[in-house]
Specification:
Elements (H helix, E strand, L loop, with lengths): L1 E6 L4 H17 L3 E8 L3 H4 L7 E5 L1 H6 L5 H9 L7 E4 L4 H9 L4 E5 L12 E3 L8 H15 L21 H10 L6 E5 L11 H14 L4 E4 L6 H8 L9 E3 L6 H10 E6 L3 H9 L3 E4 L5 H4 L6 E4 L27 H14 L1
Helix pairs in contact: 1-6, 1-11, 7-10, 8-9, 8-13, 10-11
Length: about 350
């Protein structure tokens, strides 16, 4: 049996992007034992990804909080997990992740030739990503295909299928649990208003306008809010606006884990998201997405044409600034997106779903 170490500790959206390429590698070599290094916060989620046999949880926050040299002993103990691998595949492309590949002892260490922080120095199988390949998922597929086609350690017979064919399977138990949380009597439209970046937020008033429109035009649907526990107060603020709360508006922000969120998204006829993890999770389970973009580039991280639609203020010079907090006196990119435009996009997705 060949042992492959996959290194993709974070972020959550990037991890979801990697699920398809890793599953394809595993199907290409049935005798492959795939171990995945992932931040411990996501370990229970990635453990159920197709093709993954072992999780190596990386305690990033614990190491970050500990002072030098306290963490040296614990780090040395953790590194002992990185033994007896034949091949390492670094999908993160940073100095730390590339060092993990080297410490694994793998005879073949794959990673992008443009890895940052001189990480490429730790690879002996450097993969050139063509300049025209810009989307994050496409870059991962380049690495996966190069490994399968050139590794001398894998007895690989790759399946002939396009990247768009992959769907992240939701466990049956999570599907059943989702029916207990939100009954099957009505179809679902999912709303995911949270993001770690202040510059990505769509204003509370716009969300409220959208829900009022959903009340008028899709009164037969459940409107379900999804998100992390720290996003629940924002959802409560939205629901406190006039004419928003109702018997079929459900706030599940902070009430579901990642697989629970995936199960709700898989049932939704459409999901409205920002550039955040729920966007990538919805796309991975096959739910049509309406994604609102501003400070980031949808050509790199947005949904594909068959997965949904991107709404952005294309007339702004400051678009795709990659500033976590808007430096302008007044934000214009996301606030400039009207609820009516989002509603029209939802209507198109719902009609075609």
């Amino acid at each position: 049996m060949t042992r492959l170490l996959v290194i993709k500790p974070s972020s959550l959206g990037d991890i979801i992007h990697a699920a398809g390429p890793v599953a394809w590698i595993a199907r290409s070599a049935p005798d492959l034992h795939v171990s995945w290094i992932v931040n411990d916060a996501y370990a229970s989620f990635v453990r159920l990804f197709p093709g993954v046999r072992e999780i190596i949880a990386f305690p990033r926050e614990r190491f970050r909080r500990a002072r030098f040299p306290r963490w040296l002993g614990e780090a040395a103990g953790w590194v002992r997990h990185l033994r007896d691998f034949d091949v390492a595949l670094d999908l993160q492309g940073l100095q730390r992740s590339a060092l993990m590949a080297r410490l694994s002892g793998a005879a073949e260490r794959y990673g992008p030739s443009d890895a940052r922080e001189l990480g490429w120095m730790h690879y002996n199988c450097r993969v050139e990503v063509p300049p025209g390949v810009t989307h994050a998922i496409d870059r991962l597929w380049v690495l996966a295909r190069e490994l399968v086609s050139t590794s001398r350690r894998l007895d690989a017979h790759p399946p002939d299928e396009p990247p768009s064919a992959f769907r992240l399977p939701v466990p049956d138990a999570e599907h059943a649990r989702s029916l207990e949380v939100v009954g099957a009597s009505r179809p679902i439209i999912a709303l995911c208003p949270g993001s770690r970046w202040q510059s990505k937020h769509w204003p509370v008033a716009r969300w409220a306008d959208l829900i009022r429109a959903l009340h008028d035009r899709h009164a037969d649907h459940h409107t379900v809010f999804l998100g992390a526990p720290n996003e629940r107060p924002m959802v409560e603020e939205i629901l406190a606006q006039d004419g928003v709360a109702g018997p079929h508006v459900v706030n599940l922000a902070g009430s579901t884990d990642l697989w629970g969120t995936a199960a709700i998204l898989a049932r939704a006829r459409c999901a409205v998201t920002l550039d955040s993890a729920p966007l990538h999770l919805a796309a991975a389970v096959g739910t049509p997405v309406v994604a609102l973009f501003g400070p980031t580039d949808p050509k790199r991280v947005g949904p594909r044409a068959d997965q949904g639609v991107v709404i952005a203020r294309r007339d702004l010079d400051c678009l795709e600034c990659y500033e976590r907090k808007c430096p302008l006196a007044e934000r214009v990119c996301l606030p400039g997106i009207e609820a009516a435009e989002v509603m029209e996009a939802i209507e198109r997705r719902v009609r075609n779903s």
